[in-house]
Specification:
By secondary structure, the protein is mostly helical. The protein is about 65% helix and about 10% strand. The chain contains 8 helices and 3 strands. It is found in: Membrane.
């Protein structure tokens, strides 16, 4: 029975007939994510300071906007790193499922910060369409291109090695991708301005970028909000139907399914059963928990029985 009371996210299942579960795999995955976040945070923060200085020197509002966007990335990466450290290091007996939910909370905050960044870009872009300013396009292009290289490296590092199923890491990756697109917009806009002298071109590109950011952020916000509101990540009716397929179960009620973090689902329920033996019920509980794990990836199941003659 205790095999189905997991207090850790489930590991990815292998496509083999037999699977091996090693306790250190969770630590290995998060250790890799932590290493990637530290590298990305260091590089992004360094590039942010460089961009800020040259944005002032070149009088480039687009470059300054991208610097602000990069600051939101630094904030997001720092929060994501803090969440990983909390999961790995912090212990509190009052936190019965540890600090895994902190990863979701960070994803929620990151999504909000992306939305704020996108709204700021939209505002600045519209303003610049009506009130264009002369800029040092050459400096803008060079600095933005350096930022593009940094963001491209970090995004590639996350895409290839990080656990993007984790909402916390996914939110950091979305931030990095949005900043990568921001750098592309600034570079393209800078080249266009340099060649044509038309200053509003980069504003139009920035508007396109902002709406892409909003789309990503809304998806992430919806996912994290559903978890924080403890919405069931799987079909409740499908779970109830599967449980009732067992002839030892007469009724299922007070069924709750919640998600702590990625691959960490919890189910609690009461069932009516005609069984009278504790050993028989324990076997039933094990069978139901096994089915919940195999069919719905629910790793923690708490099942309480009521005798058939008892009323709810």
């Amino acid at each position: 029975m205790y095999d189905y009371l997991s207090h850790q996210p489930l590991l990815k299942t292998c496509k083999h007939e037999h699977t091996h579960h090693h306790n250190h795999n969770h630590a290995d995955v998060r250790a890799m994510d932590k290493k990637i976040l530290i590298i990305s945070l260091t590089m992004t923060a360094s590039m942010m300071f460089v961009q800020f200085v040259y944005a002032l020197l070149s009088n480039s509002l687009a470059l300054l906007s991208d610097t602000l966007h990069m600051f939101s990335d630094v904030f997001a990466l720092a929060l994501s790193l803090l969440a990983l450290i909390a999961v790995q290091k912090w212990q509190n007996e009052q936190k019965t499922f540890g600090y895994f939910r902190l990863e979701v909370l960070v994803a929620f905050v990151n999504a909000l910060s992306i939305i704020v960044s996108a709204i700021f870009i939209i505002y600045e872009s519209i303003y610049k369409l009506f009130y264009p300013e002369e800029i040092d396009a050459k400096t803008m292009i060079i600095v933005a291109f350096l930022g593009l290289l940094v963001n491209a490296f970090n995004a590639f590092l996350m895409f290839k090695n990080a656990n993007l199923d984790n909402l916390n890491i996914k939110s950091a990756f979305y931030h990095m991708m949005s900043d990568l697109l921001g750098s592309v917009v600034v570079v393209v806009g800078g080249v266009a301005v340099y060649l044509s002298g038309i200053f509003y071109i980069d504003s139009l590109l920035a508007l396109i970028l902002a709406f892409l950011l909003l789309r990503w952020a809304v998806i992430l916000l919806k996912q994290s909000t559903n978890i924080l509101l403890e919405s069931s990540p799987v079909d409740i009716n499908a779970v109830r139907a599967m449980i009732l397929e067992d002839e030892r179960v007469e009724e299922v009620f007070d069924l709750h399914i919640t998600q702590i973090t990625n691959e960490m689902l919890v189910a609690t329920m009461h069932i009516k059963t005609p069984l009278v033996s504790l050993d028989e019920f324990e076997l039933l509980s094990q069978d139901l928990a096994k089915n919940l794990l195999e069919n719905f990836r629910i790793g923690h199941s708490t099942i309480q029985a009521l005798r058939s003659k008892n009323e709810i």
